[in-house]
Amino acid sequence: VQLQASGGGLVQAGGSLRVSCTASGSIFSTKTLGWYRQAPGKQRELVAAISASGITYYEDSMKGRFTISRDNAKKTVYLQMNSLEPGDTAVYYCNSDLQYASATGWAPLGSWGQGTQVTVSS
Fold first, then answer.
1. I need a labelling partner for 103 at 20 to 30 A (CA). Which of 8, 109, 115, 119 fits?
2. Of residues 83, 53, 82, the one with CA closest to residue 69
3. 86: phi then psi, degrees, rounded to nearest 5
4. pLDDT at site 26
5. How far, in Å, CA of 78 to CA of 21, rounded?
């Protein structure tokens, strides 16, 4: 599976952006998809995940501000980001296959997109 992310940009604090990630390949609809982000000097962290049936998961700091969704017909996963803060500045990556284990949490096992830069100015 190859992934192509898009939609990043520069936005003022309090603003909104929607990033998208489109996949090639035939198994997209059966997988849990996810968005991660990596800020300069920090480790990549999970933002949100969405299962094949549409069940969603969010990291605590993103709850209520971010919404993950998917369109299997378009092989695309979206991340709508509202009330953006400077701390949300990062490169946002999508992953095509997330697995969850109770002992270790979420693990990104699929392909990575190339990332899209989101910059939030104060």
1. 115
2. 53
3. -55, -30
4. 65
5. 6
